[in-house]
Automatic annotation (TrEMBL):
<dbReference type="InterPro" id="IPR011042">
    <property type="entry name" value="6-blade_b-propeller_TolB-like"/>
</dbReference>
<dbReference type="InterPro" id="IPR051262">
    <property type="entry name" value="SMP-30/CGR1_Lactonase"/>
</dbReference>
<feature type="signal peptide">
    <location>
        <begin position="1"/>
        <end position="18"/>
    </location>
</feature>
<dbReference type="Pfam" id="PF22807">
    <property type="entry name" value="TrAA12"/>
</dbReference>
<protein>
    <submittedName>
        <fullName>Soluble quino protein glucose dehydrogenase</fullName>
    </submittedName>
</protein>
<keyword id="KW-0732">Signal</keyword>
<dbReference type="InterPro" id="IPR011041">
    <property type="entry name" value="Quinoprot_gluc/sorb_DH_b-prop"/>
</dbReference>
<feature type="domain" description="Pyrroloquinoline quinone-dependent pyranose dehydrogenase beta-propeller">
    <location>
        <begin position="31"/>
        <end position="417"/>
    </location>
</feature>
<dbReference type="InterPro" id="IPR054539">
    <property type="entry name" value="Beta-prop_PDH"/>
</dbReference>
Amino acid sequence: MLNQILFTLAVLQARAAAANCPSLTASYPAPSVASGYEARLVAQNLNKPRGLSFDNKGNLLVVEREKGISAFKVDSSDSCVSLQDKKTIVEDGSLNHGIEVSDDGKTLYASTIDEVFKYKYDSGKLSVNGKGESIINGMRTDGTVTRTLLLSRKSKNKLLVSRGSDENIDLSSVDINGGESQIRIFDPSKAGQKFTDGETLAWGLRNAVGLAEHPDGGGVWSADNNADNIERNGMEIHENNPAEELNYHGVLSDDQNSLKNKNYGYPLCYGVWEPSEIPSAGRLEVGQQFAIAAENASNQDAFCNSDRQAPRLVFQPHTSPIDLKFDTKGENLYLSLRGSWNKEDPVGYSVSVVKFGSDGQPTEGSTSTSALSPILSNSNTDECPGSCFRPAGLAWDKKGRLYMSSDATGEIYVITQSSGKALDTHLRASAASSTRQNTAAMLATLTALVFAYFL
């Protein structure tokens, strides 16, 4: 009899869990998840979702290209997440990537190819009051279209905006006054600022789409998508060079920040990934920079490595890092790698992690080729980009779960550790508390079912 009761309880529990945890199925092969992790598909049929952000009420905001900004209420129990009551809060098809929300939930920022807008936002009502105010303009280019936003949590009233190049190899970006291929700093309380009015944090960055601020030390990091179809001394070397870059820009609040206003090489210098495939490479190593001058490029390598700021880490070419998110203690930096479009063997198409030490720096050295550890990947990249997800935006909820948008497939995934444990382990205590509450509620329900079974 006892075994029968236990079996009945197990069946009821499984059915209850299944009923309360809707399952979505992708149209492509199930993703490959690293050992110790779980990933669930929680939203579909979005219009090219890019940037993600949570407000102070725990609502998930999503930039949908050609549509605007949508919001979801999040109903969850550990890894069982349900996105409900979708609502369009900003109707503007020109918004295409960047999004930030102030900590008090009263201000929303979003970007187009040319402008940054500020909205009066009510997180309780999931609505904006009036039209957005243009606070930054003059950013239009014919090349890159994303304008990533980072609202500093360590330096008051500082908004970082990353603007890419006007073309693949944009020679005009050698002029710092032009504003292309730069990260600039703005006061978000001011309206009508031109991009070139902002203070330059870094330049010589082809397309630094990913931006993040270390939660402990406050150091600013960017992930740069490097140029395509590179040649050196008349030879094509684009299959395995140049590398994508993780660059360090120092601490915004540090008046003595020696990295402020540094040039990171583009369009003259590029990160080395596979030195054996670079003509006249000499002693160039992984993580150093090389030149692509029309003739005798190797003669300019010394300039690239003495007069330009080297990347802190390099990643495999064409992986296309799009977003960066630190965990609470800054021990792990998660990256969305949107993936290649012109590489013979597709690469990227994953969410990966880089380990950081107590000094606020990656644990791997600058010559490492193994700093990235994939946690969520496409199971068959040979089918990419046509039949696979392409990671774009990343965002943390308050329970330490990481959300990822896939713009190509119109989806959102949630990533946790196994059994629904918080991916951000420093938020595990709050997640565990929630788990205990949910478990107690479930036990109470099951107890009632036991009594009903005997009656």
